[in-house]
Design goal:
The complex is a heterodimer of chains A (about 160) and B (about 425).
Chain A (H helix, E strand, L loop, with lengths): L42 E3 L17 H4 L13 E3 L17 H15 L15 H7 L20
Antiparallel strand pairs in A: 1-2
Chain B lengths: L2 H30 L14 H35 L34 H10 L17 H15 L28 E2 L16 H4 L2 E2 L15 H16 L19 H12 L4 H4 L20 H21 L4 H27 L27 H10 L9 H8 L15
Antiparallel strand pairs in B: 1-2
Helix pairs in contact in B: 1-2, 1-4, 2-6, 2-7, 3-7, 4-6, 9-10, 9-11, 10-12, 11-12
The chains are: A mainly alpha (about 160), B mainly alpha (about 425).
């Protein structure tokens, strides 16, 4: 819920992926696509999301799943941690080796265009870095994976 | 094929399932002995090489373990295609060291931390067959010869019509299997993390360093529906393990030369580990005991060891039950159950155990025992698992998130309505 007007928020997985004005965690963004952080519940990895659209993506899951970050169809079908740190890259599928956040932003922009909606630029063109997330979002932010290559450490 | 031929083939396929299954705890035990992101190696003059090897060893062993799970599933699909029911629950070796099922006498492998000796055992498991070696259905020397025997049975005794049960198999396109993930990859150089990020492309620092030891096209889950797909399932297992037959070096498992065979991956690690002294290796290898059992541990650890074994066994129970379900029920059981169970429950339990110490003279850590846990009944297995999780004393440091995840695992007791409950 938006604390200012009690309107339900569309859940989304990260910075720049919000569908409406005031639909970021702080409720202060001016426009779709301009929010600073996720409204989806923070979670640390694959199948731990509680709802549609809450999967961050990129670390576990099939190539197809990893190609739709922030766009999972159902609870527990998301592919990875929320929020999506900028360092994260897909480990499988067509986006393998490329930025997960930038793929999520592209998927978001396609969804907005299909819906006939306008949207603004993300506060960051590359997504939130781990350092930014730790400073502005959660000092204990982490992602998952034993290789440590998520850029967000490892999760419990 | 005749009924007796079908039963004979099913019997050998069940052995195949148990061979693949038995490699999983052996590989995982060694995998978990590795701290893939060690900080303790930095003081060594070989610190960078040690840290790089640690992550590489972890990535390569996990990349093999993931494909062993695929092989087990393919063998199960073959059984279901023929109308059989694969048995997984209670079929883990249970006691170590062990020989592989129906392997000829003299081979033995156990639960052991990473070492040159253990990698030699791994090479023994994945040993490529000699050119022209005869198929062996029992007392086999190499896994390749055992699968050659199954191939002969399929070629000589079956027709397409024998592979008619498709509905209950685990197929592709359902999110059940992914060759590559954040645990199978590793960096070319572990010290990449000390380099500054490119602010215009923060993902590049890691992605430029990433090695992907598994590739999708080396083989995937597939429905077995005729002789051709049955033989393809077998060849996938053989090639990923011992290499593509046209490659005399046994390095690659595919004609595109995009993926190394299991044997080659272990051979690579075996060569490289010899560059380091035992003392150096200790900077990233947990002090795991050899072939631990629950009974060998101090009793205060029993609740955690029991939970780890129960989760381990529940994973096989969920898989076995998945082969009796189809459609959404199967998807709910397998997709949610296995992903959550393997990655976010068992992995996290073992990950935490490693930092508890036995307080013995050797300074050993608590390691998984991978013993079969016998649930009281299928009907109450989920409740028993939850009760075990809740009974772990706080002193053993089980994260509350893990208990919460166990509570929402699919219940293997699926009623007549076919709905999977949590």
């Amino acid at each position: 819920m938006n604390s200012q007007n009690n309107m339900p928020l569309e859940l989304h997985a990260c910075m720049g992926l919000n569908a409406c004005k005031a639909h970021d965690r702080l409720g202060t963004n001016e426009c779709a696509g301009m929010g600073t952080c996720a409204t989806a519940a923070e979670h640390s990895c694959h199948t731990l999301n509680n709802c549609r659209g809450q999967g961050g993506c990129g670390l576990y899951g099939t190539g197809e799943e990893q190609d739709r970050p922030g766009d999972n169809p159902c609870a527990w079908r998301g592919s990875c941690a929320v929020p999506i740190n900028a360092e994260r890259f897909s480990t499988d599928g067509p986006n393998q080796g490329k930025s997960v956040w930038q793929r999520a932003r592209k998927v978001f922009e396609e969804r907005m265009k299909q819906s006939g909606r306008t949207f603004g630029p993300s506060p960051s063109p590359v997504g939130p870095t781990t350092a930014w997330l730790k400073k502005n979002y959660n000092p204990d932010y982490n992602a998952c994976g034993a290789s440590g290559m998520s850029g967000g450490g490892s999760c419990i | 094929m005749t009924d007796s031929q079908r039963q004979n083939l099913l019997s050998h396929l069940q052995t195949a399932v148990e061979i693949e299954l038995s490699t999983i705890p052996i590989y995982l035990y060694t995998y978990y002995s590795i701290n893939r992101i060690p900080s303790g190696c930095d003081a060594s003059k070989n610190g960078q090489a040690l840290a790089t090897y640690a992550n590489q060893a972890g990535g390569l062993i996990m990349s093999v373990a993931v494909e062993e799970m695929l092989h087990m599933s393919l063998a199960c699909n073959l059984m279901r295609a023929l109308g059989g029911f694969p048995q997984l629950y209670g079929k883990s070796p249970g006691a170590y060291p062990t020989n592989l099922p129906h392997h000829k006498k003299g081979f033995s492998v156990g639960l052991s931390k990473l070492s040159a000796d253990q990698l030699e055992k791994f090479l023994g498991i994945e040993k490529p067959e000699k050119k022209g070696a005869k198929p062996e259905g029992d007392n086999w020397e190499t896994i390749g010869q055992f699968y050659d025997y199954i191939t002969e049975l399929i070629e000589k005794e079956t027709t397409d019509a024998d592979f008619k049960q498709e509905a209950y198999q685990l197929g592709s396109g359902k999110g059940y299997y992914a060759a590559s993930n954040i645990d199978t990859i590793y960096p070319k150089d572990a010290y990449y993390i000390q380099q500054p990020e490119n602010p215009l492309d923060p993902a590049a620092r890691g992605s430029d360093q990433a090695v992907y030891p598994n590739n999708d096209h080396s083989g995937d889950l597939r429905i077995v529906k005729d002789k051709k797909s049955a033989l393809k399932a077998i060849s996938t297992i053989q090639h990923q393990g011992e290499g593509y037959p046209n490659d005399p070096t046994h390095e690659v498992d595919d004609p595109e030369k995009d993926e190394d065979s299991h044997w080659f991956k272990f051979n690579q690690l075996h060569k490289e580990i010899k560059k380091f002294s035992a003392e150096e290796l200790n900077c990233f290898i947990h002090p795991f005991p050899e072939n631990p059992t629950r009974a060998s541990y101090p009793s205060q650890f029993y609740p955690l060891v029991d939970l780890a074994n129960a989760v381990y066994s529940y994973l096989f129970l969920m898989t076995e039950v998945s082969y009796t379900l189809k459609g959404n029920a199967q998807n709910t059981m397998f997709y949610i159950g296995m992903h959550k169970g393997m990655i976010f429950i068992l992995d996290k339990i073992i990950g935490g155990m490693r930092y508890l110490f036995l307080n013995n003279k050797a300074g050993q850590a608590l390691a998984p025992t991978f013993e079969n846990y016998q649930f009281t009944s299928l009907a109450s297995a989920k409740q028993e698992l939850v009760a075990l999780a809740k009974s772990v004393p706080a002193s053993l440091g089980l994260d509350p998130n893990i208990i919460a995840r166990i509570e929402v695992l699919p219940d293997v007791n699926v009623g007549a309505d076919g709905i999977v409950h949590f």
